[in-house]
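Field: COMPLEX_INPUT
Field: COMPONENT_COUNT = two
Field: RESIDUE_TOTAL = 905
Field: MODE = joint
Values follow.
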Amino acid sequence: MQSALPGAVWPAVPGGDGAATFALLQQFEDTQWLAGEQLAALQLRQLDVLLRHAYDTVPFYRKRWNGSYDPAATLSLERFSRLPRLTRAALQTRFEALKSEHIPAGHGRVFPVATTGSTGTPVQVLKTALVALLWNAFTLRDHLWHGRDLRGKLAVIRGRIEPFEAQSWGPATFGLLETGPAVMLGVGADVETQLAWLLEQRPDYLLTYATNAAELAKASLARGVRLPGLREVRLFAELLDPEVRDLCRRAWGAKVTDTYSASEVGYIALQCPEHDHYHVQSEGVLVEVLDDEGRPCASGEVGRVVVTVLHNFATPLVRYDIGDFAEPGGPCPCGRGLPVLRRIVGRTRNALVTADGKRYWPSWGSRALLEIAALRQYQLVQTEYGLVELRVVADGPLSADQQDRLRRHLLASLPPGMRLQLRHVDAIGRGAGGKFEEFVCEVPAP
Amino acid sequence: MSRAARPLPWRFVSALSHDLWPAVPNPDGAFVLALLFQLERTQWLPPERLRELQSQQLDVLLRHACETVPFYRARWGRAPDAARLTELPVLTRRELQENFDALRSSAVPPQHGGTAESRTSGSTGAPVRVLKTALEGLFWRAITLRDHRWHQRDLGATLAVIRRGVTPGESPSWGAATEGLVETGKCVLQEVNLDVETLLDWLSRTGAGYLLTYPSLAAELARAALARGVRIPGLREVRTLGEALDPEARALCREAWGAPLTDMYTAEEVGYIALQCPEHEHYHVQCESVLVEVLDERGKPCAPGETGRLVLTSLHNFALPLVRYEIGDYAEVGEPCPCGRGLPVLRRVAGRVRNTLVTADGRRYWPHFGSRRLHEIAPIRQHQFVQKDFESIEARLATDRALTREEEEALRRYVLERLPPDMRLTFSYRDEIARAASGKFEDFVSEVAEPRPVRPALQ
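Field: COMPLEX_OUTPUT
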């Protein structure tokens, strides 16, 4: 830790914002172990303040909640669950009406944040310094949970950025903790270029998208290239195919850690230090996973993720239907009381939809697929209720036997009655944010 | 990080315009929690790593002391580095008393906050004056919170304090360490100079969850409670400070109230020195704030099991730096603690020089008799043993009635068995044996345990 005070080298006395970050982190160290009911009670306290603020100062909510919110009544989670949800579409179109007319001065600087719109239309929110403070504290929690050695070198491959070198890992640690350097590369570079860059940089940590990590690991395995110093691959922003964990372990002996976040919300869930599933960051967000009738999903059921951001008083997001689907899990054996998400299955557009309105998140295992044929790239696109298109980039035509085996393998993972069509394409691009989706549904729900 | 001892959830106070969870505390509170966060980790570091980190801080302190403190500049010439700390002369209490002005820094970093003078009670010697900064106040607060965490206190309970110099009454919070940062229950305070029966009645009416007082008084209260059958049902823990702890006090508190006793070792000059381990009855040096040496008569570090003089270096006092300050207390070094904390262990704090028995050949002893055993032999209410010369001890006793010859003889045999050979014992009887002006009580005082020779202050 870096001291802002002359003379006090150890223990450090950090500068104002740094002290506040650690003050939060110190609280997180305790709250993570609280029982579910204790956490819920604390969340309710914060929720009460947030709802009053939203009702009093945000035109959208004042109008929308008329009749369903009573500031005089004692708030309960049951009452809360009766408030209408905020859709992504509403957030896109009602940005102005969702702004607070009175952002508390104590929350600090106000600034806009827009999503990349990689997987849909972009959305915009206002955030405050307080929201940023929580982001930093959760970032540090993630470092702590996964026992990272911050003195190591971090390589980042993401988005459309120019190659860049920084002295520190980023805003969460800057001026607060001594870190090693960070080096960055855009995800647009081809996999061979990326691999050569990683070999040259010799990072301890790699931060990138799951599909990109998988491609890098496959290329490493194919060429017999090791990345000896690499300890951990940190993933964000994309759905994680469980096979990626295995690939990274085989290629580099590195563990994989995933995070679930969204720019308009912040951190939603972080991977458990001891398991492959996720813990909801209940100190910052209240997460509901709801079935089609709006009831909370039981453990093992997949439902819609509805998020309430507890500390954004500039653009309050209350019961925001973010458009993702996830599967809640039971209590974690690690002992933390933070709720578990077993997996995040993605957005509506990553779900196969049938004519009767049922959603499926197909899982086919890309490794088995690639053992059938050496595809450079592939993507599954649902173009009609009954039809999925397999788009492939391959060096040459596939044999009839390969085509047949691919078809049989994939159809086994889709609901009955689906047809599969193969199509050769020259390239499959990433979305605007650099993210890649292996399954895309182009059909609206009935 | 240990999950073994999860503290009860605390309710932090948010400094923003409204209630907030998690809380964003006021700037001082945030500093305190930032320190606490580090303390939560440093406690588990191995001793070698802790020494390295201490050395980093020590280097800065020594440079500052040499550059800005006339006393040290004259004594050291140029700034020593941390590795040579043990070659520096110790600073005696007497030197501190006589050189207050020469020990002040001429350039206290303004970022360390305001400077305030504080003085010891002088309970066991002439008072000493020191200066402290706001920064030290932050460390004091953070270590107080560490103590609360270690012992898993419920901060919502009522704290009863019986000490000298407090204003009897009630205060809405536990005090400065938690004020404005963590919500606590109320604090009820009482002066020490009331008789034990009155204090016990008061205590039983307070509904206190915690009692903070001197160990001798805790023992007296517990004895009185046992005699009268006074239970204090809500009492969870007795916290003690300010005196050498008689282990019997632990047994008495447990027996009287079923409450564990937790001791701490603090001094006005340096703040917290050692806190009781959460899992054992010995103490952990608070080495993030103070560097502690325990030295034998030749000035060599004591091995585990040996008792020696305590020499302290306060790591963050840049206003009146205390470097190798010989505070006048003795302590026994312990083995590394099985709890896994790397913080050095003091097995017991034996008290001051004047509480040691000295023989003509210069050997020191820490006689211990145990009030319970004495009470079993004769109806003794209070006792104090005073060494008058190298061969004789006076037993000052306050008793319920005159003792019989048999009781005196039994007492003599019991006491002499616990003293070095060839000591003589005389009895004198009093109505009451008063506490020192500080409120502290010493059950053994030597009038001949001369202080170590005092070096001339400045050449």
